[in-house]
Write a structure and sequence with these properties.
The chain is α/β, with parallel strands linked by helices. Helices cover about 45% and strands about 15% of the residues. It has helices at about 20-30, 50-55, 75-85, 95-110, 125-135, 145-155, 180-190, 210-220, 240-245, 265-270, 285-290, 305, 320-335, 335-355, 355-370; strands spanning about 10-15, 40-45, 60-65, 90-95, 115, 140-145, 165, 195-200, 225-230, 255-260, 270-275, 295-300, 315. The protein has a 7-stranded parallel sheet with strand order 3-2-1-4-5-6-7, with helices on both faces. A 6-stranded parallel sheet has the order 10-9-8-11-12-13, sandwiched between helices. Helix 1 links the parallel strand 1 (about 10-15) and strand 2.
Length: about 375
């Protein structure tokens, strides 16, 4: 059994610690909380992942408590036992599967739970909405990463507005780019001094619309042959994207360098950041681009329009409107002064609202509130439909 100390013990419940936006948010919260006051652990229910060594090197315990395939009704009891053994003060779950299992387990262990919604498709099935509303009542607090998600939970699943708050994702300050690192990246990618780089960073997944982006880039590249598209990331779509690139005859001007752990020099090498996703909660990569003083062109999904105002920090186009997207890219690339001004305003927005310290402090306040009311863990009230 884990020895007890006076620190608040926060146990995160997530699918795994693979490199991804949600997982990176969890890591940054866990690593950002003051060590003298908090101790963090991560319970994974499907897999561990590549971030485990780095997390454990920073004093964050990571363990796998596997669930069985399908609906595992015994899993909450196994997870509750782990919660008690780990002596958690707060359980913090992330996304819908963790909401279900983690809330039940925390209630069985008599530990307050907090839930963060990062992204989901609305509306869902009616019975799922009823279940989620019922589970929400057993959480000390419901957090969403954008106002758009908060409104969706209230409108589609009838969550209590007073019970749901927004904590926007925050990212570390990447600081000023090192010209030596930027030059190294450009050499690594085979870019010439005259190359104009349009870049994006994210998991290679259909929801990110990378295949459509490559096809759209064929139009963008025809207008200026100095343009290069760089898509940084790994994932299940990697082979398919290489096939699309070949189909479009863009092998030389569309680069797929894979995953990169240190993204700051790559962001610094971009002339424009783009985000054409079909769905987002509050995209971490976009905020990282803002911290790097980059103008952006993004599709207006999830919380994108809450952090980038169209024409101010970048351009925001209607979802799946590729003609509007191409026109916005053309306008921003065609006016260096405007692009640089957008980048400066993006950096200012980051400094004012989107820092890592602001996000961590907001969650710390929620944890402290939950611990303060630990004796009054909400009951699983019967849902009235």
């Amino acid at each position: 059994m884990t020895a007890r100390d006076d620190r608040t013990r926060v146990l995160f419940v997530i699918q795994g610690v693979e490199l991804g936006g949600l997982e990176m948010v969890v890591r940054r919260i866990a690593e950002g909380l003051p060590r003298e006051g908090y101790h963090c652990g991560i319970a994974c229910f499907d897999t561990l992942g590549e971030m485990q060594p780095a997390l454990e090197a920073n004093g964050i315990e990571v363990f796998l408590e596997p669930r069985r395939p399908g609906l595992d009704w015994r899993y909450p009891f196994r997870l509750a036992r782990r919660i008690r053994e780990w002596r958690a003060d707060v359980v913090h779950t992330h996304n819908a599967t963790a909401l279900f299992y983690g809330t039940l387990a925390a209630r069985l262990a008599k530990v307050p739970a907090i839930y963060t919604e990062h992204d989901r498709q609305f509306p869902g099935r009616a019975r799922t909405a009823v279940m989620n509303r019922w589970l929400a009542r057993a959480n000390h607090r419901i957090v969403t990463v954008s106002e758009t998600l908060r409104e969706s939970l209230i409108r589609h699943e009838r969550f209590d507005p007073a019970h749901v708050e927004v904590i926007v994702n925050g990212v570390p300050d990447v600081g000023a780019p090192d010209p030596v690192d930027v030059a190294r990246v450009r050499r690594e990618l085979g870019l010439s001094e005259s190359s104009v780089v349009i870049g994006t960073i994210g998991r290679l997944d259909p929801i990110k619309s990378h295949a459509e982006l490559i096809r759209s880039f064929r139009v963008i590249a025809e207008r200026d042959d100095r343009r290069t598209l760089v898509i940084i990331g790994s994932g299940p779509e990697a082979e398919a994207l290489r096939a699309v690139r070949e189909e479009c005859g863009l092998e030389r001007s569309v680069l797929l360098p894979g995953e990169r752990r240190e993204i700051a020099p790559y962001l610094a090498a971009f002339d424009l950041f783009v985000l054409p996703s079909k769905s987002e909660g509050m995209p971490v990569a976009l905020i990282e681009a803002m911290a790097a003083s980059k103008a952006s062109v993004s599709m207006d999904v999830g919380g994108v329009g809450e952090v980038v105002r169209d024409g101010v920090e970048g351009r925001v186009t209607p979802p799946a409107d590729w003609r509007a997207f191409e026109e916005a890219v053309e306008l921003v690339l065609g006016d260096a002064a405007t692009r640089e001004a957008m980048g400066r305003r993006a950096r200012q927005r980051f400094e004012a609202e989107l820092t890592l310290s602001a996000m961590v402090e907001a969650y710390r306040s929620v944890y402290d509130s939950a611990v303060g009311e630990k004796a009054a863990v909400p009951a699983l009230a019967r849902e009235t439909v």
